[in-house]
Amino acid sequence: MWLHTINPSIKLLAILTTIIVLALFLDPVLYLVFWIGLIIITFSLSTISKKTWALLTAPFLFMAIGYVWTAMLFPYEALLENEQVLFEWGWLILTEESLMRSAGLGMRVIVFSALSLLFVLTTKPAVFMLSLMQQLKMPARLAYGIMAGYQFLPLISEEFQIMQRAQQIRGVGRPQTVKERVSQWKSFVIPLLASAIRKAERTAVAMESRGFTGEPRTHWYREIPLRKRDAVFAALLAGLFIVSFTVSSIMK
Amino acid sequence: MTAKWRLSEIIVLSVLAVVFAVVYLAFFQVGNVMVGMMGPIGYEFIFGIWFIVSIIAAYILRKPGAAFLSETIAGVIEVLIGNAVGPMLIVSAMIQGAGAEAVFAATRYKRWGLWVLMLAGMGSAVTSFIWGYFISGYGALDPGYVTLMFALRLASGAILAGLLGKWLSDGLYQTGVLNSYAIARDKKKGSYGKAS
To answer: pTM of this prediction?
Structure first.
């Protein structure tokens, strides 16, 4: 449960910093060690289900494979010149270093997705928005505007279904060709956007008539605190990075 | 940035961001399949769609910050919906929004023709590509291949964001829901000019 109670702003900043620092390296060993550490942290300190996590990671695995073979087929050739050739077949040349770079690009995708899941699966949307207002000083008008917009999500999808059924009742069949698909898409998107904008206006009037001015606040009904554990979390990520960096240096 | 905005403008901005956040996530699935099959270049064909909200929001509201904020909010909403690309989307959204915003700022928010919108889409393509070069490590790839990726992204930004964005906003304008926003003010001014 521990990860779920970290302040969302701190969690966000710590994870973003980690991603940017990791992007400075292209080292599959470092990434692998970091990834294993992340998995241990994720599952020992949170209540994320392993199944959900695996399902969400799967598409990135697929993407990582795309990166790996592209990097093998289209390497930066100037880099290959002074390197030990492991394998040559036609114009496909693989060196030890180019294999490491390819593996690095693929592992990077996987590590970044693990970091993202750590945030996304342990953070409640409303708490995240409140924390953005309280810690990162997002203007209240903007934050409540976003929350109001976010509330429309189910309404918009419901409206989409209503429109779909209305069309079916009037004898519009399921689209078969690409052309039909495009013209059907056209008949949905503008009405959906128009009704979303009307809803937005009504919401704005409702908020203002109830006295919402969006002045900066000093007191909150629900305070999102900054605690010691937030610093511990940031230190944990930093520590994991140092360990991975050391392991990778020793392996070289 | 939003101090002088009407609340309805802020909420319209958020609602546009919500709608397109869903579209963005849908295209992310498409992109994922394409990347798996074609490698990183698979994203480039559809990359422009991820800039479209900044074009639409700026074209409708015609205010400094509309392009940047709408894209950023779309990024925040993608995270709120809870997808696995997560927090990084907010940063890349800000970078994309800044590219389009820079183009609109260069016209001093006075020109809203098709060319400006297409250039704004390309502006997002430029900033997002620089960021992608760093974060996805394109330096390890063949420069010719990377140049091809960049050219595709520019074209995609101009067409899928600029052209499609203008077409959608104009369609939306015809429904009359935008009558109290800057797009209607400018368009009416234009049509009075023609009549006289």
So the answer is: 0.88
